[in-house]
Amino acid sequence: MEGRETILEVKNVKKYFPIQNNVLFNNNTDYVKAVDDVSLSIRKGETFGLVGESGCGKSTLSRLITRLIEPDEGEIIFDGQDFVKLKGKSLRKERKKIQMIFQNPYESLNPRMTIEDIIGSSFDIHGIAKGKIRRKKIEEVLEKVGLNSKFLTRYPHELSGGQRQRIGIARAIALNPKLIICDESVSALDVSVQSQILNLLKDIQEEFNLTYLFISHDLSVIKNISHRIAVMYLGKIVEISDADTLYESPMHPYTKALLSSIPIPDPEASFQRERIELIGDIPSPVNPPKGCNLCTRCPFAMPVCHERKPELIETEKDHIVACHLYTSNSEHMKESTVL
Amino acid sequence: MKHDILIRIVTIIFQVFIVVTIVFSAIRFMPGDPAVLVLGTEKGADPEAVAEMRKTLGLDQPFLTQYIDWMKGAVTLDFGQSIFSGIDVTESIMERLPKTLELAFLAMILAIIIGVPLGIIAALYRGSVIDSMVSALAAVGISFPVYIIGTFLILLLSFKLNLLPASGYVSFSENPLEHIQRMILPALTIAFGLASTIARMTRSSMLEVLNKDFIRTLRAKGLNERKIIFKHAFRNAIIAIITIIGLELGNLIGGTVLIEYLFNYPGLSSLLIQSINNRDYPLIQGSIIIIATIYILINLFVEIIYGLVDPRTRKQNR
Amino acid sequence: MIKKMLKNKVFVVCFLIFISIIVLSLIGPWIAPHNPLEINSSKVLQPGDSENILGTDEFGRDILSRLIIGIRPTITVALGATSIAFVFGSLLGMIAGYLRSLPEKLIMRSADIILSFPPILLALLVVGFWGGGVRNLILIIGIVYMPYFARLAYSSTIQVKGLEYVQSEILLGASHFRVLFKIIFPNILSPLIIQSSLTMAAAILLESGLSFLGLGIIPPEPSWGQMIGEARGYIFTYPMYVIWPSLLLGLTILSINLLGDSLRDILDPKIKIK
After folding, report:
1. Lower CB count within 10 Å: N or C terminus of chain B?
2. Are the beta carbons of C118 and B148 separated by less than 8 Å?
3. A43 has which bridge partners?
């Protein structure tokens, strides 16, 4: 996927959430470091997967990128523009280009609106179309997600989970966005429906030349749909590479542990594979260790891992990892400028 | 926990401070000249008398000076003199306050004694005639204003049946029996409304708890039915009761205002009404401040007890 | 929704009663048999007869007419105060929940300050210094009950704000105005409506209580609470004088309370009160 222009660049973004301390005069506030210095860039037309366990900060990151939450530090450059600096009307205009498909099909649609109005909101907000033209546009979009116009007068509670997600997709593509963030968009669906929706997403991507940021905790889903994948742990990116390489030769111990926990249907193969297990307690996101976030659980931990946080380093073409195991041969490794 | 109480106390002081400020400011922002209103149309025409009254009411000084003087007075509980009687405001208030507190306390006790058992019985015999009767009675108690209930109780128990006296007050030291006799009707009147709310709440929280899974498990284990009811369900009902008392506190005080008037009971609340009718501004201000402060303090008390009793809140407050 | 409402018998009955009361208050002046203020010193405290169906009061005024006209100030104050509390309380609560930070602190602290007074005490303060009358009562009772709506709107807004369909509306580029009033408000309406019925009952109780004390509606304008206050002196000589307004007032409040209960059943069946 090289040679394509970058559509989204995230640089050193941080978001720390303060925790309420019940002490009256003590100014000592603790923070949850939800997103701790994250950088990545997404190329036009690709599907960039972001994988990690619950609570690693991937949803927070998605909300930072879309500015549903404001970042504490860092830059977000979207489509050449400084996305963080936008305000008011110009921000709302620019929002057309970056949309999101949410996780919970039961919560992402307004229960008091008809399907027509839910999708029509996109047009109403930006004053794009009214009356017959609006209706036609809505029907067109519905068609694209595989639903016919009889759904227009229905309410969300009359639809199944899969149908609702299709509406969510329809709403997202109605404004012809350039980037769509899929935040655990298939996680709440039955497995059979999951593959339907994933295929739909792929079709739409091709038809409209879309870029996806696909967030999930499910490794098999991520592998299915992503071109490149980033792995996140406790607010930090630990590894980025293209999908095949990540699954064939993962570098970071955390990635290895994740992959080795995917259930394999074949009992023999399952018995034979190398199990990487993480031992020990998960450090609290409030007080992460001084060194690498994984140092308390990593089976390969070295003394330096408890001392210093590892930087993201490009170890081979397009494969970046943050781990002290790979900085020992630091002579011909350069700190990554190409992500 | 200690910090928690500290924060609460600071909040209370702040609240009382605001209350005092608001009550103090009232006399300055009211329409018309308070001095003239107090003197009436005749004397109010005399400029000298008006000037004299303004001095008494403290309206001749600039706002800030008077405010500081007032605050100083408030802290030492000196609210000036009653215009009407000349007696020290604080003295009048302190004479009447215990009587109102006694009335309120008695009403609350009666309400709990009547309301809780009725609520439990209604829950245990859900759907029966008793349940309907209790629910109907409770509906009346909640809907009919307390002074109407008082009036009807007077009609019934005093007039028709000649059981209890309708007014007057005899102190405990003078004649304990008669003292209690005269307090029953007023206290009962207030208790009626309060008991209705308590009965309702007790009933619904009993029903909720009795249906919960853990009660079913206990029954399956074979525990004595009575033990189950009393020990486990009741404990949860207590939380509901304390909640109600906290919520109904405002009504309790409102009740004393109306009932003291109705029964001619010499409490602080009836003093307040009298002073409003007499335009006795210093007395109005003093009374309102004291009543409001007591309300705030009792609320704090209830909050603390609630925090101790409900293990869920305990965890949160940590 | 409407079907649910019609199925609930309690709701239908109470709603009809409520509407009739409002209608009565409007057409009162036309259907009252006598002038409620007309004094007739020759016919004082007389029991009902063909001319004065329910009898006369201590000034010889027709009780029935006074009862009919007496609905007006009570209902006016109740509706007016509830509207003020609903509109301004909900608005402030939504703003506090939506914007958080400074507006939240300001609005919620102000609400707490109002709540540090028992309602009747604050009303007495105002009545004591500014006098009674319909206008003052509407204002002060409205202000006294604003915090309940504010708190309710505040917590509901915070709850709804984080829901995905609100987030997606923001993401589409909706203005704050649209998000607040077109999306959030309809979804927090139910508890606010239930609160309205509670507040109406409370407002009627408060106004009639003040009138009972002689501090609410200014005589000789009749109001049920005030009539009860004046009638109690004659309880032993002519008890019906006090019984009529008492019954009417109590039943009115009862039906509003039941209306609120049935609304709760219709709108939010998850909460079990009964």
Report:
1. C
2. no
3. A6
